[in-house]
Amino acid sequence: MIPYIALKKPQIHNKPCPNGCSGRGVCNGDTGLCDCPAGVGGPDCASPDLRPCTNRYRADKASSTPASHIGPNKRDVNWTAPGWTQSRCAGVCDDATGICYCDGPHFGRVPAPQGSSAGSPPIRPGRLLHGNCQRLKSDDKGQALQWGTGGGMSYDDVYGAQGWCTVDTPRVRCSCDMDGVDGDLCQLVTETVCPNQCSGHGECLRGFCSCFEGWYGLDCGRLANASVLEAPATAAAEVNGKDGSNDKEQGLGQKDEGDSNLNSKSVSDKEGDEDEEGEGRGVSENEAAEIAGDAALEAEAALSADSPAGDEADAAAAAEQIEAAAAAAAAALPDHLRLLFDRPFLKNLVVDVWSTTTSAAEAAAAAAAGSATGPDGQFLQEEQQQQALINIAAHGGAADAAAAEVQAPPIPDIYFKPLHEAEEAAAAAVAQAKKRTTRHLTAAPEDQQQQQQQQQQEEEEEELRLQQLEEQLEAAVESARAAAAAAAAAATATSHADHQQQQQQQRSRQLLRHMWTGGGGRRGMISIAPKQETVTAAVQAWLSANTTATSPSSSSSSSSSKEASLAAALAAAGVQMGRLSSEADGVLLRHLVEQGLGEVPAGKARRPRIFVYDMPSRFVGRLLQYRPSKQTCTWRIFSKSNFSLYTTTESSSAWRYPLESHLHELLLQSPHRTLDPEEADFFYVPVYASCFMEAVAGWADAPWWGVQSRSMVKQGVAMYLDALSWVRTAYPYWNATRGANHIWLFSHDEGACWAPQEIYNASIILSQWGRLPAAAGGDDTRDGGGGMVNSSTSRWEYNFNKGDDKDDPAMPRGYQAAIGAHPCYTPGKDLVLPAFKPPPRFHASPFMGGDARSRDILALLRTDLGDARPPAFSGGLRQSLAKLAKDGRWKEQHRIWIGSEAELEGDASVLLARSRFCLVVPRDGWPGLFEDTVLHGCIPVVVSGGDMGAIAQPFSAVLRLSAAVLKVRPEELPNLPSILGGISEAQEAGFRRSIAKWWQRMAWLSHPMEAAVQNINKGLVQSVPVEFKGHNLTVVALSHDEYVGSHILRTRTPWQADLLGPLMDKVRPGSVVVDAGANMGDFAIFLAAATGPTGVVYAFEPQARMFQLVCTNMIINGLLHMVPMRNALSYEPGELHMSDKVTDGSAGGMEYKDADVNDKVTINYGGMRLGLGGETVPAITLDSMNLTDVSVIKVDIQGAEKLMFYGAQETIKRNLPVVAYESVEAGMATAVDAELQLPQHVKDFNVDTFLKSLGYTTQVFGSDNIGTPPANATAGGRRRMLQGGSRQRILAVPPNRRRQ
Asked: What is its membrane topology (predicted)?
């Protein structure tokens, strides 16, 4: 596989569909087939395809007509008739989805008139009647109803004088757990969840994307008609209740966001098509940009207009002008741009792959043609339009969340190396010269006047030298630029052999760069011991022998022999492999051979390219529409204020299969996604089987796959075979490779154990259940009758060894024959993925800034122990552990806590953070406990064997998990207390160090919603790209952080860049850096970029809120050689506290706990200091870490500097690093001294004197004066700001580094 592919504009496909899908469905431009939402079907989405509420399942299992118990008026035909399914409705049934609504004159649903076309919306949606409320114990005459016993409501509670369906304030409250509605009375209309939120190119109809005209695909991500990019905005984008407000009540004339019949919206229905002035014509994107620009100028003029101070009337008029300008700009946009402008809360959830790919391809084409793009150029990118509008709306308060977009860093140019080297040399020389002219030494000579004269003369001489140097370097740069241009021109005339040699040399440099910066170093694949030129020669020789320029496939042929030859070449050069594991060496080496060849060049896209099939709605969209609870089938939902929330909580009743939708959405948004299947390396087939089997099947008598059956395995097998049939007939790509490059996810309990053999044997399988075959050390015991792997589940409907009837014509030999005899997981072909655990699940983790806790629990297992389950549950392992723990009084005797949620009360994350060891025991398949354990730094004790066999843990093929996992067989469980008690402190520390190296691999943090772990829904956490000294990083910060965070978000530049720059210059690549007082990690990530992956940056931050951001910034930038530490550095080990008051800034004097939760208050988090009454943090001395090769120490800890330096004296003496610190004003230092009750010898310690005694010289980098108090500052805050003075930033350089 060649590493890159040319970036091309996606092709437009517009194969017509029958009858234009009747304005109800979406026409697939690839296949010419209609995709229909719930309620309609047929080739043109014009026929009814219903899911009526019912009291029974169909008698004739082979019938295609679902059983119904409603009449033409959508009401139950006879309440007194027996029988019940969850869909049976005591109100009015939406027979498109099987969902029940109230009846009656006040809040009752009014269906579309009889005889209306299929898919017609109701006249009035009505109030949701859900859960137990849709079952009645008796009718209006008091007659008992058989189907309402055991959980129904009384008639009076629903339809009485104070009933749910009768009055505004009913006596009882019914469930509003339906996507699209919220509030105590289901009166609030919210956004609904769709994959990738329809790419911003369509309306989400509770899971089904109804695409705007000209767009198609499961997520409306593909373009069928380019003219719609210049179409006028339509009324389709205006949806009641979608503006984030929470006071809209469903009623007559409103769109029913809780109803699938929203598909009645036709994108061809335009308002104001034409009028006398001609406004009906299309507005081009360039014209829209002009309008936006004019609106922006008006807004700026309104803001800057001269008016008397405090003139509220002028201020109000300016605000109105801004809002009007934003509205005018939005009105000029096409639908697909207007949607995200109207609903800024979607910005963080949508990736428009079409637009980003097109923009990048156009930019590359323009660059290749030598033309620039921009507002005055040929191409005006949609992203520029959107950003301009967001900037306007931000003044009017309409786009707080939009600024949180996570943007990819720009791609560096790797082809003009001489030019870049000259420019870098120029910048470095100029910077060095400027340092010499501006240095300031604290040790003054006796004759001050003589010093000043000497300094003035030196400055004049240096200024002259600097001017000459700049002229020389400018000439060198020009020469290099000319040489680069000449080389580029000459390249076109080189011979084929010369061109091939140049390619080999370039690939050699790229390959080496990847080894050193991507896979090398302390946690990388290889360790670079020999000289660079030796390794370079070895790789160049290997490339010469193994690289041809004949075809793209040639570089991937015989990859195993190439890997072996490269490994041998590297070994001969002295490169030591085996940094992770032998399996990892093979995987990563293959990556180097086939694709890991450095950064992506401009105009290229990185391989592999993945095409995500736009599966028909029956596999995804309709299932989301059918789901009876918003908490199921998806990993996120919208709150009543349209904040994004996770569905997965710590409760055992939470949705267990969010990976199904999460992985799908990640692939839809991935930069590896291609919209052109012809260039795809892999094909992903999304099938929401867990959603169907666990949430949809059996609610009503539809849908079923094949013959109706309550065997979920049979249904699942038929569902996957149906998906395979569609893939085969709709596209040619399965047949081209016999499915070898197709990827399928089996997210249910037993993973792919029951996968159809036609899929399993051919394709790449992803699952969360790595049950190993016997050949890999596992147990693939076969059922005596069918030759299949034994099922390990206790649920009969999911047991694939039972209930195999042969009544389905699609599977005449039965579903077990379709499964065949194959293992559950094949190492080397398949991959075990970690279960999806959102950040709230591990909020107390020490990795994520949780409070420091002693691990006082020896071992923990808090889960369902199978008390009410069949004996086969968990293979009996959990039941055995529960009995052993109870009989042996393990909790009291050994601090081994084993129990259910009811027995072991408390926050699950806190309990895990308190535990030394955590038990990982299967349930009916994968348990998800391994991920919970690792994410909390707890040592996993994996119990496997017996009937379950051996289990491969997530990513075990590429991570050396054995160094961090303790394995126990079932027969060893009685000895568990002695086994765990026998683990030494050194062994335990080794386990925990291993976990710290790869715990991030168990966290799904790639989605934009997860980029900022804390408060993202309030718009408080935002991220921006920041480029500094050649490093392009993403910085996540708090928008209400008064100084540091707001500065970075506003300017997209580092805080105190004048200090950060010199520090980065002083960092030795591969060395150790200490950041004491890391704040959000903004300094630490750039220092980590400077050290490279072979170095280490210890980032100390005691504040929980800031420590979480340190971890987030580390993860989002992939800087895994950072080591975040939630410790205070002090003069002795122990415990310290943060102040319980805000100690600096405009909120100074406020209680921290009150200010921190108030998003209206801005806080100077960087000014928080140690004190009394606040968060408890563990304190250590820097000397206790015995660090060597320390090149830089940065200290900014608000008056506690002397504590840190007192405990770091030996480290500084031993390493003589460059040190940056603040000279804190006396008031703050005195407060710290007094509140912490420091001993006298610490109070007397003087940092400046200590450093001078070691020969350090100091340079002042200005002050940190926080300025004039803002108008909203508290009285205490104003006083502290005015009296606080300024704090000088000092750079102390040791004698051995003074000339560097």
From this structure: Single-pass type II membrane protein
Count other C-beta atoms under 10 Å from residue 1239's C-beta. Answer: 11
Which residues 6+ apart lie within 8 Å of 762 measured at CB? Answer: 738, 739, 740, 742
Strand partners, 612: 684
Strand 1072-1076 to 1190-1195 pairing: parallel
Counting every residue, how long is the chain?
Answer: 1300
State pLDDT tens for residues 732-767.
Answer: 999 999 999 999 999 999 999 999 999 999 999 999
Half-sphere exposure of 961 (CA within 13 A, CB side): 21
pLDDT digits (tens, 9 = 90+) for 125-173: 999 999 999 999 999 999 999 998 878 899 999 999 999 999 999 999 9
The residue type of 717 is V
* Amino acid found at 342: D
**DSSP H helices in 788-894:** 815-819, 877-887, 890-894
Bigger pLDDT: 1096 vs 1260 = 1096
Tokens for 1094?
């072979």
Query: Between β-strands 1173-1180 and 1128-1129, what pairing exists: parallel, antiparallel or unpaired?
Result: parallel
Q: How far apart are CA 816 and CA 811, in angstroms?
A: 9
Burial of 2 (C-beta count, 10 Å sphere; 0-12/13-18/19+) = middle
CA angle 929, 935, 937 (to 5 degrees): 105
In this prediction, what percent of the chain has a pLDDT beyond 70? Answer: 63
Q: Provide the H-helix boundaries in 514-620.
A: 532-546, 559-572, 582-594
As a whole-number percent, the residues of the chain with pLDDT over 90 amount to 37
What's the pLDDT score for residue 676?
93
Structure token digits, residue 923? 């349930």
Torsion of CA 850, 638, 836, 838, to 10 degrees: -10
Question: CA of 150: how far to CAs of 102, 145, 629, 811, 1224, in Å?
Answer: 21, 11, 21, 38, 69
Confidence band for 946, pLDDT divided at 50, 70 and 90: low
Answer whether the bond into residue 601 is a cis peptide, omega within 30°. Answer: no
Q: What is the pLDDT of residues 595-611, one digit of tens each?
A: 333 445 667 787 788 99
Report residue 590's pLDDT band, with 50, 70 and 90 as the boundaries.
very low
Tokens of 741: 């490059």
pLDDT higher than threshold 90 for residue 38: yes
For 15, other C-beta atoms within 10 Å of its C-beta total: 13
For 532, the token pair is 């660079």
- At residue 1223's C-alpha, the angle toward residues 1220 and 1229, to 5°, is 125
pLDDT at 1161: 56
Task: Quote the pTM value.
Answer: 0.66
Phi, psi of 1083 (to 5 degrees): -70, -45
Are 930 and 940 a contacting pair, CB within 8 Å? yes
1208 pLDDT above the threshold of 80: yes
Name the token pair of 1292: 């102390």
DSSP string over 1021-1057: EEEEEEEETTEEEEEEEETTBTTHHHHHHHHSS-TTH
CB proximity list for 100: less than 8 A, separation 6 or greater? 53, 87, 89, 90, 91, 92, 93, 94, 128, 129, 130, 134
pLDDT of residue 21: 96
With contact defined as beta carbons under 8 Å apart, do 1072 and 499 qualify?
A: no
Cα(1009)–Cα(395) distance, rounded to whole angstroms? 24
Position of tokens 């690549």? 1069
Least Cα distance to 1095 among 1066, 1130, 1059 occurs for: 1066
Closest CA to 876 of 910, 839, 921, 838: 921
CA–CA separation, 349 and 1007 (whole Å): 8
What is the pLDDT averaged over residues 1118-1126?
82
What is the secondary structure of 371-427 as a DSSP string? Answer: ---STTSS---HHHHHHHHHHHHHHTT--TGGGG---PPPPPP-S-HHHHHHHHHHH
- How many CA atoms, within 13 angstroms, populate the side-chain half-sphere of residue 230? 10
